[in-house]
Every structure is written in structure tokens, then in C-alpha cells.
């Protein structure tokens, strides 16, 4: 099939590469000429395991362009995968979706299907249909379907090639048939429904995972108070297939470009129907508190942070990405700086992005050892392999006071005891 993808961000790019891998001819459109030039030269603007290999392997079937009109004109299917940024009130900004819809409507010269893959509020499919009708130049039939994605950063290629399901929100059997031609080569299970239900699947799924994290974080907080161990508790819970073991890792809260945005957007959507989503509200509040929980724990050891040497290990919202958007590390560093601490940070991937947020206020270190040498306190905010594998005895050897506050439970309590450090983690007893 001839497929066009609007947007060469991480969703658009991974989608384009995987569709080409399955034999489709794909034109990927982006307004950013620099990004398009980079892609044309065979390089990926983002790091996603396996992506660059797929782009190289399928370059015969992949085209990157800034010329949307040319790409959309004769496409059988056009996938909208542009960004949907968050507004200050929690609503979703659909400006880029509207621009893509308008451009498609003006360009299309044959019947086609427009599949909305961007995460959009329920009802956006109807809106896209109206934008297309208002701007359509030629007597062609353009059908809009909802086709949400479930890619996680760091495993996006695998998540697309071996997805747990393909969700299609269609309003006609013809659109369903066309979309199945796109996805049949993947040989994955389908959930076919109406457009609004498909749009809801995406929010309901992401927000459910966020609820699961906030729930387990609260259980972890109670474990600390009653002397239970969260890791044993989740092991015992997770074996129940009705619960499942994933997304039960207690820590300092969820971040990233999806969960914080999607929880707010779903809450906002329901509020627009005069319905308060109380579980979601609670999950958001718990997450905000959980993010700075370690700072509160640190205050039980020191009276103030002013003038203290503070090491921060891990900046990104999770390992395997350079993305620091909504990362718990940011809120913590802001408090430390505001209270006058000297902050030294280390992260294997997120430091370039962090430099745009904190310029000269923090010291960027090239090794973990450099960051913790002579430190009064060390905070761990991301569970990078490099941190997990770091010799825990080095904290005792290099820090001024070996006080380690670990927001991602990177070390076993036994190893902390043997190393002779003061060790605070999440949902487990303190070691001192
Ligand atoms: C999430 C979803 O997992 C994807 O299915 C979805 O497609 C994507 O959002 C999206 O909407 O585009 P992602 O944001 O890449 O993917 O990251 P996750 O792996 O879900 O992690 C999100 C946050 O939750 C991270 O900060 C992570 O540290 C935290 N987390 C995750 C926990 O604190 N505990 C856990 O057990 C799991």
C-alpha cells in the first residue's frame, strides 16, 4: 500500500519504519527541514533501539519529505502522528492535528483513509472529519479512523512489531477493510470498535497504568511505616494473573511525556461532562507528593541543604531514554537549588537535555564516582544499569557522609548493610 505518515517524531518515525519493514511504501512528512535532511542521510534524529537499522534496511520503501501535499495526494492511507501538546489547564492542543487534516483535505486526489494515531481526546475523530470536509478540494471520499498506539520509549520498535493488539476505531466496513490491509502483515490480534471507543482505549489504558503506579507507591509508603517490604509484597501480588506483575515497581513516581499529560487530559475530559474522576485525581496528587518524597526523607538527616554537596544520579524519567520531560529529578533538583545546595549530576543520556533546564546552576559530571566524591548526600532518581551495577562500597569510600537516598530501589538491603552506608529506599526498611 501507499502510506503517508504526518509527523516524524518518535511515534511517526517508528510507525513509518515498521510499516516499511512489513512491505508498505511509506512517505514520512515533517515540517522540520533539518530533521528531514538528517533522515534522508540515513540517520535517526532520536535514539530508539533497532530504529536506525530498520530505516537503513527499508530505505527503498521509505521517503522523507517536507512536502506534505505531494505525499498525501495519492496515498491510500494517511496516518496522523503529530504532537498533541498539553495546555496549562490540562486540555490538549490540537493545532498540529488540525494543520495536518487541512493539508490532507487540500491535497487528496483519490479516496483515502486518515488514521489518527496521535493521542487525542475522545471526539477528535469527529472534529478531524469536519476539518477535512471544510477544506476538501476534490470530490473524493476521505474516511477518518482512530488508531491509537501503545509504544513505550526505549522499546518502541519491538512494541510496534509485536504489539499486544491493534485497536481500530472505524465508522464503516470499508475503512476497516483498508486498515486491515495495513496491519494484516503484522499478524496481531485486532480490537475493532467505533471511533470514540478506540480513542478512549488509549487514555483508559495509560491512566490505568498510572493508577497502578500511584497505588503501589502508596502501599510502599505504608510498608515503610509498618515494617513490610514492598518488593516481597509486589512479588506476592503480581503472581495473581488478575493483577499482573508489570507496573508494580514502587519508586518516586511516574514522569515522561505521556502519563502526566494523559491523566490530566482524561480528568479534564470528564470534568467537561461534569464528572469528577476521583481515582485519577488521587493518582495525580499521590504522584506529585511521591516525586519529592526523598527530599522529605533527607530532611530527617540534615537541617537544611544550604551549602551541602549533593550528588544526583539519574535525570531521565526512566532508563533507556534521553527524555527528561516531567522527570521526578527535575522537581527535586529545583528544590535543592532553591535551598542553596551545590548540586552535581550524572546521567548516561539525559545531561544534554538537562543543560537546557539547568545551565550553570548544577555541575555535570562524567562519571558516577566524580558526582559522589565528597558529597554529603546522594539521590538516585533513575534506575540506570550503570547505577545498579556500580560498586555500592564506593559510596562509603568516596562520600563525605555515605547517605544514599534511592528513589528506584537499585540495591539490595543486604548489600547496603555490607557496604556500611546509610541507605533509604522506597517501601523498604532503612539501613543505617
Ligand atoms: C507509556 C505507556 O507505557 C505506553 O504504552 C504508551 O504508548 C506511552 O506511554 C504513550 O502514551 O505514548 P512511556 O511514557 O514511554 O510509555 O513510559 P513507561 O515505561 O510507561 O513509564 C512511565 C513512567 O512510569 C516512568 O517514569 C517510569 O519510571 C514509571 N514507572 C513505570 C514506575 O514508576 N513504576 C513502574 O512499575 C513502571
Automatic annotation (TrEMBL):
Residues 311-413 form the UDP-glucose/GDP-mannose dehydrogenase C-terminal domain. One of its GO terms (molecular function) is NAD binding. The active site is at 258 (nucleophile). NAD(+) binds at residues 30, 35, 84, 119, 261, 325. Substrate binds at residues 202, 247-251, 255, 318. The keyword NAD applies. Keywords: NAD, Oxidoreductase. Pathway: Nucleotide-sugar biosynthesis; UDP-alpha-D-glucuronate biosynthesis; UDP-alpha-D-glucuronate from UDP-alpha-D-glucose: step 1/1. It catalyses: UDP-alpha-D-glucose + 2 NAD(+) + H2O = UDP-alpha-D-glucuronate + 2 NADH + 3 H(+). GO terms for biological process: polysaccharide biosynthetic process. Its EC number is 1.1.1.22. Pfam families: UDPG_MGDP_dh (PF00984), UDPG_MGDP_dh_C (PF03720), UDPG_MGDP_dh_N (PF03721). InterPro entries: 6-PGluconate_DH-like_C_sf (IPR008927), NAD(P)-bd_dom_sf (IPR036291), UDP-Glc/GDP-Man (IPR017476), UDP-Glc/GDP-Man_DH_C (IPR014027), UDP-Glc/GDP-Man_DH_C_sf (IPR036220), UDP-Glc/GDP-Man_DH_dimer (IPR014026), UDP-Glc/GDP-Man_DH_N (IPR001732), UDPglc_DH_bac (IPR028357). It is an enzyme of class 1 (oxidoreductase). It comes from the Bacteria. Belongs to the UDP-glucose/GDP-mannose dehydrogenase family. This is UDP-glucose 6-dehydrogenase.
Amino acid at each position: 500500500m501507499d502510506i503517508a505518515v504526518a509527523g516524524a517524531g518518535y511515534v511517526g518515525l517508528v510507525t513509518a519504519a515498521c510499516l516499511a519493514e512489513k512491505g508498505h511504501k511509506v512517505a514520512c512528512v515533517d515540517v522540520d527541514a533539518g530533521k528531514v535532511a538528517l533522515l534522508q542521510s540515513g540517520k535517526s534524529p532520536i535514539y530508539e533501539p533497532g530504529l536506525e537499522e530498520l530505516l537503513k534496511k527499508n530505505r527503498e520503501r521509505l521517503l522523507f519529505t517536507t512536502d506534505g501535499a505531494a505525499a498525501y495526494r495519492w496515498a491510500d492511507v494517511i496516518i496522523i502522528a503529530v504532537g498533541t501538546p498539553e495546555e496549562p489547564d490540562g486540555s490538549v492542543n490540537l493545532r498540529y492535528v488540525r494543520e495536518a487534516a487541512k493539508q490532507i483535505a487540500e491535497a487528496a486526489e483519490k479516496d483515502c483513509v486518515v488514521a489518527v494515531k496521535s493521542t487525542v481526546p475522545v471526539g477528535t475523530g469527529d472534529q478531524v472529519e469536519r476539518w477535512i470536509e471544510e477544506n476538501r478540494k476534490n470530490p473524493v471520499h476521505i474516511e477518518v479512523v482512530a488508531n491509537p498506539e501503545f509504544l513505550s520509549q526505549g522499546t518502541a520498535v519491538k512494541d510496534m512489531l509485536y504489539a499486544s493488539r491493534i485497536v481500530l476505531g472505524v465508522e464503516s466496513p470499508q475503512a476497516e477493510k483498508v486498515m486491515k490491509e495495513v496491519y494484516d502483515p503484522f499478524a496481531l490480534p485486532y480490537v475493532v470498535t467505533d471511533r470514540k471507543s478506540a480513542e478512549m482505549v488509549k487514555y483508559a489504558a495509560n491512566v490505568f497504568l498510572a493508577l497502578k503506579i500511584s497505588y503501589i507507591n502508596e502501599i510502599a509508603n505504608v510498608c515503610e511505616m509498618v515494617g513490610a517490604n514492598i518488593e516481597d509484597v509486589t512479588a506476592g501480588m503480581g503472581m495473581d494473573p488478575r493483577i499482573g506483575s508489570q507496573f508494580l515497581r514502587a519508586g518516586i513516581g511516574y514522569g515522561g511525556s505521556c502519563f502526566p499529560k494523559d491523566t490530566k487530559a482524561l480528568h479534564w475530559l470528564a470534568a467537561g461532562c461534569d464528572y469528577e474522576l476521583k481515582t485519577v485525581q488521587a493518582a495525580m496528587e499521590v504522584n506529585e507528593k511521591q516525586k519529592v518524597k526523598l527530599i522529605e526523607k533527607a530532611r530527617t538527616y540534615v537541617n537544611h541543604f544550604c551549602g551541602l554537596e549533593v550528588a544526583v544520579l539519574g535525570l531521565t524519567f526512566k532508563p533507556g531514554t534521553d527524555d527528561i520531560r516531567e522527570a521526578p529529578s527535575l522537581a527535586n533538583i529545583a528544590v535543592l537549588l532553591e535551598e542553596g545546595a551545590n548540586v552535581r549530576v550524572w546521567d548516561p543520556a539525559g545531561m544534554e537535555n538537562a543543560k537546557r533546564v539547568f545551565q550553570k546552576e548544577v555541575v555535570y559530571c562524567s562519571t558516577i564516582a566524580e558526582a559522589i566524591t565528597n558529597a554529603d548526600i546522594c539521590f538516585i532518581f533513575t534506575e540506570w544499569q550503570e547505577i545498579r551495577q556500580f560498586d555500592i562500597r564506593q559510596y562509603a569510600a568516596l562520600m563525605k557522609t555515605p547517605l544514599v537516598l534511592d528513589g528506584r530501589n537499585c540495591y539490595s538491603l543486604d548489600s547496603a548493610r555490607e557496604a556500611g552506608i546509610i541507605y533509604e529506599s522506597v517501601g523498604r526498611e532503612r539501613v543505617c
